[in-house]
Design a protein that fits this description.
mainly alpha; single chain; 13 helices
């Protein structure tokens, strides 16, 4: 038995970060909620193979997979701007598994609690054969591709006092070195999820192109060029 409603409430408490200013940072909690939803959806994409996964255990693992960031923040080991800025380390996954085991003991049987922790730990192992762990891994990687990744991008640059121009330069370098395509090719276990990742990347490419255009006021310059051309034509002597 897994009490998912109670687990969600407990996960929210464990994942929301209290800032020094007395506000609540929900960034990590919102990420966990997305991963939980994505994990279930990926199972549906997999057909019979996904049907054999214990969905309740998987959702609970997804809600707790990244709590290691919160643990380390409270220990003073990372800054808020570091959170989700890079893939989870083995140490962070271990923190997540230990936190889940301690926090969720009242809400799940020991057998399913151990299964939940195994999913979290196995999700970082490239050669794992654990289907639920592969699903969790793909959900995390998909969340990090496309427009959603821009929020992390902006958050980190803002925390470091950097502006839009710096973010665009970073983006241009990533494109130059095919960072995102290499990441997609290297990150996903399931082909349908990889295909969705490429679609998300295309969406982000279009958005970043528009953002760059607006930062440079290229759209305004284009309109000025049209007006200038029309003015020249109107002043030309008739043939």
């Amino acid at each position: 038995m897994v009490q998912l409603d109670a687990i969600r409430r407990k996960a929210k408490d464990d994942l929301i970060i209290q800032t020094p200013e007395g506000t609540q940072d929900v960034f990590l909690w919102e990420h966990a909620q997305r991963i939980a939803v994505l994990s279930e959806m990926i199972c549906n994409l997999l057909g019979p193979r996904g049907g054999r996964v214990d969905r309740e255990v998987l959702v609970a693992a997804a809600l707790y997979h990244s709590v290691g960031w919160a643990v380390q923040y409270r220990q003073g080991a990372v800054l808020r701007s570091d959170i989700l800025s890079r893939p989870l380390s083995d140490l962070q996954r271990e923190h997540s598994a230990v936190c889940a085991e301690e926090s969720l003991r009242p809400y799940a049987s020991n057998r399913r609690l151990q299964a939940l922790c195994a999913i979290i730990r196995e999700s970082g192992r490239r050669k794992t054969t654990h289907v639920a762990a592969k699903v969790l891994s793909d959900a995390c990687n998909l969340d990090g591709v496309g427009p959603l990744s821009l929020w992390l991008f902006i958050r980190k640059h803002n925390e470091e006092g950097l502006g839009i121009s710096s973010a665009l330069k970073t983006w241009d370098r990533q494109r130059e070195y095919n960072f995102w395509r290499a990441r997609i090719e290297d990150s996903f276990n399931f082909e349908p999820v990889k295909e969705i990742a490429y679609l998300r990347l295309e969406t982000l490419n279009r958005f970043m192109a528009s953002l760059s255009e607006h930062v440079e006021a290229a759209d305004v310059q284009s309109r000025l060029s049209v007006i200038s051309s029309e003015s020249v034509l109107s002043q030309s002597p008739s043939q």
